[in-house]
């Protein structure tokens, strides 16, 4: 993979957020699976890469972003259907193959990340629809011998002045012979019929009857199943293995060393997993066998005592701090976090002499293809990736090394048959590529009238980009923009400001995790501004307002959330409210949380989330993403951490790594600001504010500050 | 050989009787609507009905199903007509969708036992089902909606 063509600005934005048994009397739905991506009935008109229209009036939108729950299989077809004037009831979708024509228009490769799908497709998909519409009109004009300018379109048909009608299906054949327009006019947003409406998702039916095909459901004729025994400690290498018992277990076809560990290939997953348990592997784990996260954090604290690489500096923060009337210093700590998508990683590969077909739920098709091609020994064009539904992504399925894809190609190569590698939950959780652990040391001061006069943030944590194909894109920068995003653009008007970054040299593989750097910078900045407000004896909402004179969009969401949450109104005894506002992925979010604490346990009763994501496409999906984002953020705030001792990860599955559940889930209210600004993201922006809003509410309820996640009242100060 | 019925069809499987029902359904019977999420009865993604009782199929050996009736998501209805499926569509519940088969199977049992569930009933019945995407608020609404539909006699 050569360096993708990205401008620096884009690069910054890019910090994305990636059977053995005999069967009697039942037929396997293999063909079913393979057919889902090929509902190409009667296609005759494909004016561009993004849409096909059949004589049966079906409009199929080819979507170049992966559906991982965020709604792209609905939102992107809406954009195209709007300009096409399609009949929404006849619109379907299909996942795009890997091809440069499906590259992200800004990132220059096929990728789903950075909460960028809608804004990057906003014009692209509309233009594709408008071009198709122009050709359908041209075809109708020819048939009726009419002036195209006198024709109109509505609900999948062209009409003339006398209301004569030809449906798109009837016109498809003729339209295919028309010359595609070089330029198309787009609709005036005031006339939108679909964009901006809470249109129901197109993918719900097959997600409520078990028919939706995720990577883990893929089945090919003759396919084997594999699991891989991977090192118990990061950086460990295999010295030798004894498979004498495992080899003789039922269904086992082959046991073989692959670069990532030892692959056990069997007729079924369960047989492979059972056989893996009987393997004896001797690992050399000397690289990290003494590693512990508590020691690492101690080191981070030491590092934070000295100045780091300058990221941002305004005024004279040191003098201002020393001369401040009142000052405060706080250290915030954040653990490693796994993405823990509901569907564990998996990848199915059919490798032949001159082709390689891959079925998986990936966010990173171009990179996966390039990495797979190297292992397969084929040119990238001979590798095809069939993107299935993703049972959650959150960034994990956009791995710069394509770890789960590359490994599966190695296994396919070794076994010489179609094979699906499935990760158990334990494999997935222990497999690395986590949200990096971070430490923020912040010092700030106020003057005698309670105005914030100085702020200095020092961050310590691993770089996500270092050591990956993206490192070169840092262009000699001494710090990783993905580490400091969200504090390097702190919006508060504080005259003396410094942001410094320290790199941490730790060998735990890290990666973007839903909201990336904002997942910790949002917490540290919004908790510390709250601490400054307390120091100034001011209301935390009003204190923020006064510091945002030049940020009307921050203010608008802050005001909206505060107003809807009833900020300032009395609460029942024992409850507290907390507020937070943050800009990320081109969108503005503010949240107010309401909590109480009983027996040291926090109960979140209510979250009000307000967003300004610019010109929005589907408010129903936006609400769902804000709800999901808040729950994702609350899970991290209340329960989640990965810890290492003696090099070993202490958490393995959901009993040691809890998720928020139904009985713990607060009431969540969402509000969207009407806006004609450029569209922003929505998958990630709803995450960063939840944890600080909860922590600030906890302070309001108990008088105790939270400086470490997950929240433990015993550690509150 | 293990014999049982799945979605009202008889099946005979020549499979190690200790194989979890989940994997027998998914790999031997091709019923992939039932999902694997944790394998240790923590997430509910694998929930199916065994003789009308909701079980975690990831920890139930297939032998436990012998002679019994198993219902999976594929058997909830053949045409999306189950009130829960209709309510799930109306409330746009699924995001990634991976947990939803299990959510629906847990909810189906809840409604059979408590046709008008309270929020507390929903908490109790649904707390074993994790949704990483955070669809809980919509699941709650959809269960109430389905209960309403059933009360009005709009569905079986
Ligand atoms: S897979 Fe059975 S409960 Fe999680
Ligand atoms: S919808 Fe994704 S895990 Fe529930």
Helices, strands, pairings?
The complex is a heterodimer of chains A (717) and B (156).
Chain A: H1 8-14, E1 22-24, H2 30-36, E2 43-48, E3 51-54, E4 59-63, H3 72-84, E5 91-95, H4 117-144, E6 152-154, E7 157-159, E8 165-167, H5 168-175, E9 224-229, E10 237-242, H6 244-247, E11 252-258, E12 261-266, H7 269-277, E13 280-284, H8 293-303, E14 309-314, H9 317-323, E15 326-334, E16 346-351, E17 356-360, H10 365-376, E18 383-387, H11 403-415, E19 419-422, H12 425-430, E20 438-446, E21 452-461, H13 481-484, E22 496-503, H14 518-535, H15 540-546, H16 552-565, E23 575-584, E24 587-598, E25 601-612, H17 619-638, E26 644-645, E27 648-649, E28 667-672, H18 690-702
Parallel strand pairs in A: 4-5, 9-19, 17-18, 21-22, 25-28
Antiparallel strand pairs in A: 2-3, 3-4, 6-7, 7-8, 9-12, 10-13, 11-12, 14-22, 15-20, 16-17, 16-19, 20-21, 23-24, 24-25, 26-27
Helix pairs in contact in A: 3-4, 4-5, 10-11, 14-18, 17-18
Chain B: E1 2-6, E2 9-14, H1 21-28, E3 47-50, E4 53-56, E5 69-71, H2 83-90, H3 100-113, H4 119-126, H5 136-151
Parallel strand pairs in B: 1-5
Antiparallel strand pairs in B: 1-2, 3-4, 3-5
Description:
The complex is a heterodimer of chains A (717) and B (156). Chain A is an alpha+beta fold and 717 residues long. Chain A folds into three domains: 4-202, 2-Layer Sandwich (Aldehyde Oxidoreductase, domain 4); 215-286 and 345-422, 2-Layer Sandwich (Aldehyde Oxidoreductase, domain 4), CATH 3.30.365.10; 293-337 and 433-715, Aldehyde oxidase/xanthine dehydrogenase, molybdopterin binding domain (Aldehyde Oxidoreductase, domain 4, 2-Layer Sandwich). Helices cover 28% and strands 23% of the residues of chain A. A seven-stranded mixed beta sheet of chain A has the order 11-12-9-19-16-17-18. A five-stranded mixed beta sheet of chain A has the order 14-22-21-20-15, with helices on both faces. In chain A, strands 2-3-4-5 form a four-stranded mixed beta sheet. In chain A, a hairpin with a 5-residue loop joins strand 7 and strand 8. In chain A, helix 14 (518-535) runs parallel beside helix 18. The two termini of chain A are 48 Å apart. Chain B has five helices and five strands. Chain B folds into two domains: 2-76, Beta-grasp domain (Ubiquitin-like (UB roll)), CATH 3.10.20; 83-151, [2Fe-2S]-binding domain (DNA polymerase, domain 1, Orthogonal Bundle), CATH 1.10.150.120. Chain B has 156 residues and is of the alpha+beta class. Chain B is globular and about 45 Å long. Chain B has a five-stranded mixed beta sheet with strand order 2-1-5-3-4, with helices on both faces. In chain B, strand 3 (47-50) and strand 4 form a beta hairpin. Chains A and B meet through strand 1, helix 7 and helix 17 of A and strand 2, helix 1, helix 2, helix 3 and helix 4 of B. Strand 1 of chain A pairs antiparallel with strand 2 (9-14) of chain B. The structure holds FE2/S2 (inorganic) cluster (2 copies). One FE2/S2 (inorganic) cluster binds next to loops of chain B.
